[in-house]
Write a structure and sequence with these properties.
By secondary structure, this protein is mostly beta strands. The protein folds into 3 domains: 74 residues, Sandwich (Immunoglobulin-like), CATH 2.60.40; 97 residues, Sandwich (Immunoglobulin-like), CATH 2.60.40; 81 residues, Immunoglobulins (Immunoglobulin-like, Sandwich). The chain contains 3 helices and 22 strands. Strands 1, 3, 4, 7, 8, 11, 12, 14 and 15 form a 9-stranded mixed beta sheet that branches. The chain has a 4-stranded antiparallel beta sheet with strand order 19-18-21-22, with no helix packed on it. β16 and β17 form a beta hairpin. The radius of gyration is 28 Å and the shape is elongated. This is Interleukin-12 subunit beta. InterPro entries: FN3_sf, Ig-like_dom_sf, Ig-like_fold, IL-12, IL-12_beta, IL-12_beta_cen-dom. It comes from Larimichthys crocea.
């Protein structure tokens, strides 16, 4: 156990500095203080030896080898990391031992998801920098930890988070009755969390900003023509948007808002935002202010 302790302390100091930046192909998750058994997954005849971070493990009361299995009676932080089984000088397989993180952050505090339209894609952003590897999966296979789950893994941390793109199979032309079941897993210093949330696609729809086409004088008013964003679902007659106009009056500088395309004529500037008119989704971001001259 002394050898494992020394190398465990060294490895923990390294992972605190760099973190595990990927999900290992094979890993086992255990709770602190619980027993766990690691298995050499490659078929082989005869005895195998086990190494922890490339150093042979000393067998003692807490760690016992039994054929192709390595049994740990009580998991501790210093035991987290990569275990490999060997036959002579041949490496047979590798398994990472990870620890289930203590209960902490809720799903909504860790990740935000958004769909620009009702097509087959949506994106999620993970913004907690303490975690160095993140992956997302849809469906019960992922929430139950099934082997057939299709995971989407994080790439490079940029713009304050991991950005992940997912695809779903919901039809945009029927009433939405099926909820999406999204599971997130994240690693921080060989500790792993798993969170699952169920929601409707309509709950995360937020269109891109619309386009202001022109402003036409109509007696004492301006008629503002607005087009949906290019990313919005088509046909637009089926996927309708409502628009809100914010404008500033020339006379007194007062700012007002209108859900009508007809606004007062004497304005100095305006901007527009949109949302799904049927489910009243989250408003888009405002367009940049547009100066009005005539």
């Amino acid at each position: 156990m002394r050898t494992l302790w020394i190398f465990g302390l060294l490895f923990i100091s390294l992972t605190e500095a760099y973190g595990l930046k990927y999900f290992p192909e094979n890993f086992v998750v255990a709770k602190r203080g619980d027993p766990v058994t690691l298995t050499c997954t490659t078929k082989t005849d005869g005895a195998v030896t086990w190494k922890f971070e490339d150093d042979e493990i000393d067998i003692d009361d807490n760690i016992q080898a039994d054929g192709k299995n390595l049994a740990v009676s009580e998991v501790a932080d210093i035991m987290l990391g990569e275990y490999t089984c060997w036959r002579g000088n041949q490496k047979l397989s590798s398994t990472h031992l990870l620890m289930e993180a203590d209960e902490g952050e809720e799903f909504d505090s860790l990740i935000k998801c958004r769909a620009k339209s009702y097509d087959c894609n949506f994106s999620c952003k993970w913004t907690n920098s303490r975690y160095t590897a993140v992956r997302l999966g849809l469906g019960p296979d992922c929430s139950e930890g099934g082997k057939s789950c299709h995971w989407v893994s994080s790439g490079v941390w940029q713009d304050g988070g991991f950005q992940l793109e997912l695809s779903h199979t919901l039809s945009p032309y029927t009433e939405e009755s099926t909820m999406l079941e999204l599971t997130a897993e994240a690693i921080s210093d060989h500790q792993i969390i798993r969170r699952t949330k169920r929601f409707y696609l309509r709950d995360i729809v937020q269109p891109d900003s619309p386009q202001i086409v022109n402003c036409q004088e109509v007696e004492q008013d301006l008629n503002v023509t607005i087009d949906p964003p290019s990313s919005w679902s088509t046909p637009h007659s089926f996927f309708s948007l409502e628009h809100e106009i914010e404008y500033t009056l020339k006379d007194d500088g007062e700012t007002r808002r209108s859900l009508s395309a007809l606004i007062p004529k004497r304005i100095s500037k305006l901007r527009v935002r949109s949302r799904d008119s049927l489910v009243q989704s989250t408003w888009s971001q405002w367009t940049p202010w547009k100066n009005v001259t005539y």
